Amino acid sequence: MTPAPEEFEVSGAETAERASGSDTLTDVWFSLERWLVKTTRNPFVTFSSLVQPVIFFVLMAEVVGAIASGILTETVGDIHYVSYLTPAITIQSALAAAAVSGIGLVDDIETGMFDKLLASPMHRSAMFLGKILSEVIRIAVQTVIILLLGFGLLTLKTGAGVGEFVRTGLLGIVGIIAVAVLFGGVFMAFSNVVALITRDREATIMIANLLTFPLLFVSSAFVPLAALPNWIQTLAVVNPITYGVDAIRALLLGRGVASVVELSSLPGLWGTVAPAVAVLLGFNIVLGGVAVSLLNRASRAAVK
């Protein structure tokens, strides 16, 4: 693991001049285009972050679904396990995509592209906004694919229509994508923090894989919290996956299904969605603040 220097120098960073006609939006577009091209040229990362949740979806629906119906009836109500599982797989897909966000940053650092961009006239905020937007697009597309898969599985098993799968309609689907992106922001920030501290590709991948599975099982993702041991219920309170899954599950089912925090003063699903979104925003602000601080420190370059 390569130790992170306190500050590194980029030759020409202060002497570079902004190109005529270039503005922040144009720079964001160029940065977004660059990251999207990088993603299409390395489809393995996108494929692996999507195929794992899909395999999990099918296996969990067949294996756990056969024994979980009784638990669901006692704790959540009369819903099919595929409907219960879809929010968990949506969050797992967003987690898999976001947790490797830092790899691209490490690649740029290792190849020297990061230094070249710092020395270029591009707005520094645009460098990172373009990267974030490319990952938002990726999470949104993966979320739609998981929802289509969930609908297909539920239809095969029960013959249910779209209205029985997403009970809040088109606005509910938009809300589900928004929550998945908000949740992804937490782990995008975390992954970039790890990347900037370690500056090592293998370490970033290892920590991402280390987190994915334990956090999923220490939450309300696959089985209602009420059916799990007390120590898992305690850990689930500080696990952002619990809040992401609860919010999407409420938007999918059209009613409150909070596992840890519910505002009884708000009607229906909003009693679950509002506190979950607030908690996820809090995680984004804290981890995003740390990531921005580290990025600013890395960007503080002096001319040799």
Automatic annotation (TrEMBL):
GO cellular component: ATP-binding cassette (ABC) transporter complex
Record-annotated ABC transmembrane type-2 domain positions: 44-298
A Pfam family this chain is assigned to: ABC2_membrane
GO molecular function: ABC-type transporter activity
KW Zinc (keyword) present: no
Highest taxon of source: Archaea
Protein location: Membrane
Keywords: Membrane, Transmembrane, Transmembrane helix
Membrane-topology descriptor: Multi-pass membrane protein
Record field: transmembrane: 44-72, 84-106, 136-156, 168-195, 207-227, 273-295
Official protein name in the record: ABC transporter permease
Organism listed in the record: Haloarcula salinisoli
